[in-house]
Amino acid sequence: MLIDIFAYSASTAHGVFGVEELIEAARRAHLDGIGITDRATSSRSREYVETARRLGYLVIVGLELETDIGRVTAYPAQVDDEYVSESWRSLGECPTAESVLDYFHQRGGIVVARDVYNRDEGMKDRVYSAKDSRGRGFDCVDTLAVYRRRIDNELSIEAQKVMGVGGCAGSGVFDDLSDIGYCATLFADQVTDQASFVAAMRGVLHWAVGLRDLGQACPMGVPPRYDEAVEDRSLRSDEGSRRPRRGGDDRRDGRNRGRDDRRRDRRDDGSDDRRGGRGQGRRSGNGGRRRPQG
Question: Which domains does the chain have, with CATH numbers?
Answer without folding.
Answer: 2-268 (3.20.20.140)
